[in-house]
């Protein structure tokens, strides 16, 4: 696992209500600009903040900066438009491809933010694409913008670096509608944990998508072998879900729900985030062994389903990987009550099976016999299946090492 740091600074509307927040990648707890490129910074923010967190509020927007490469690769589409404001970085030029892509984003419901320099440079011809214009109170007097704000009434103007009551009053008086700065709150640097999918898994998915995008079974098989990738695929499918009527209870459902294009964007995001750290390799191996074992079992219980059992095993180590309570991690995943109950409190049939796995891993044979008797399983057969699962996992993880 790896630590990811980002600055979170709130933005307020004219009634001084929290309108949204701007997320900026940071390399540590100090609020300093990072040395990594814009695309890498953006992808790390999205991976850690949206795919490994349940802190999103339904009515809050997040401003995230995107460079040309991320915009052309359709990385913003990994998140729903109601949550995301696309901030176009200043080094982006209005090429035909980029202008066309921004038009498509707005058609999809996304809003575009640009710095006030866009009013004077090459972007001036395309201001109909801009929904929000940000103006630094450090570089401009708010009175200088009164006529512009009146002229461009279709745009919303954001006053940045507001540091005093006088600056706020002036900005409000001259027509600004959004406000950000130390007057309200200093940016907080947030630390988050992120789990790294195997680079080989990501590349394998890319290969299958490019060669045979309709091969759902192969895609599902690859994703199911990487705990982190499986978690992010299911998290992404829930984030993008327009309805909660159907439970996403197995990897294949998640792949089908996302579709090839959304899956391609997700994998591109994860590759760009440079998440090739293998610090959690042992934890992922343990989780995958559990998932494989549980999906091999046959129980005489109406509460048992092999697909759900696989998810339970695969996600059973996420609280350790992410250094967060399990209840927080799975709160935004549309899993069945039995799966959630097992992961959070080790209750029910799946919870019993996780306890059994833990006893096997710690060579607690009395515990194994207890759970096998309780679940009407043959302990010797379970041990044999565990060894088989461990061998299969070792083969898989060896093939995924980078």
UniProtKB/TrEMBL annotation:
InterPro entries: dGMP_Pdiesterase_EAL/HD-GYP, EAL_sf, HDOD, RNase_Y/CdgJ
Domain of life: Bacteria
Domain HDOD: 189-381
Pfam families named in the record: HDOD (PF08668)
Stated name of the protein: HDOD domain-containing protein
Protein source organism: Enterovibrio gelatinilyticus
């Amino acid at each position: 696992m790896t630590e990811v740091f980002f600055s979170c600074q709130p933005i307020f509307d004219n009634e001084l209500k929290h309108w949204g927040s701007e997320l900026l990648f940071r390399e540590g707890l100090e609020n300093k600009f990072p040395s990594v490129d814009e695309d890498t910074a953006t992808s790390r923010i999205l991976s850690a903040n949206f795919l490994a967190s349940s802190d999103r509020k339904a009515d809050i927007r997040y401003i995230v900066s995107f460079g040309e490469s991320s915009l052309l690769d359709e990385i913003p589409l990994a998140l729903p438009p109601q949550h995301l404001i696309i901030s176009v970085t200043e080094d982006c030029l209005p090429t035909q491809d980029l202008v066309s892509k921004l038009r498509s984003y707005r058609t999809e419901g996304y809003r575009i933010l640009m710095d006030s320099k866009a009013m004077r440079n090459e972007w001036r011809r395309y201001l109909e694409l801009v929904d929000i214009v940000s103006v630094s109170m450090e570089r401009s007097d708010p009175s200088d913008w009164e006529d512009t704000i009146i002229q461009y009434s279709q745009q919303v103007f954001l006053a940045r670096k507001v540091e005093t009551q006088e600056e706020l009053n002036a900005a409000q008086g001259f027509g600004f509608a959004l406000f950000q700065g130390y007057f309200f709150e200093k940016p907080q640097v947030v630390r988050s944990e992120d789990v790294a999918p195997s680079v080989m898994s990501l590349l394998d998915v890319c290969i299958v998508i490019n060669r045979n995008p309709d091969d759902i079974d192969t895609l599902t098989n690859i994703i199911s072998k990487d705990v982190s990738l499986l978690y992010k695929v299911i998290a992404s499918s829930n984030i993008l879900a327009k309805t909660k009527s159907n439970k996403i209870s197995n990897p294949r459902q998640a792949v089908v729900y996302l579709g090839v294009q959304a899956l391609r964007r997700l994998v591109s995001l994860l590759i760009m985030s440079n998440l090739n750290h293998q610090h959690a390799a042992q934890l992922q191996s343990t989780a995958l062994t559990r998932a494989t074992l549980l999906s091999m079992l046959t129980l005489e219980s109406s509460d048992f389903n092999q697909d759900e059992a696989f998810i339970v095993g695969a996600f059973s180590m996420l609280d350790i990987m992410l250094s967060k309570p399990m209840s927080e991690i799975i709160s935004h995943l549309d899993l069945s009550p039995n799966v959630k109950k097992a992961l959070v409190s080790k209750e029910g049939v799946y919870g019993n099976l996780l306890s059994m796995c833990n006893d096997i891993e710690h060579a607690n044979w009395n515990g194994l016999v207890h759970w096998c008797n309780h679940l009407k399983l043959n302990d010797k057969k379970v041990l044999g299946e565990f060894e088989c699962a461990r061998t299969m996992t070792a083969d898989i993880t060896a093939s995924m090492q980078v």
